[in-house]
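Severity: low
Component: inverse-folding endpoint
Summary: output formatting inconsistent between runs
Steps to reproduce: submit the following structure tokens with default settings.
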């Protein structure tokens, strides 16, 4: 992160927990990174 942001403040991070799944036994983690220019 330091290399990309140049020492600026780190971006906000959100972790969302899934308490109920549509299909039992199926768990998918999605990670997304956005770069604003």
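Observed output (run 2 of 3):
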């Amino acid at each position: 992160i330091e290399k990309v942001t140049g020492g600026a403040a780190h971006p906000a991070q959100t972790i969302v927990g899934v308490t109920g799944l549509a299909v039992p036994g199926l768990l998918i983690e999605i990670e997304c990174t956005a770069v604003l220019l």
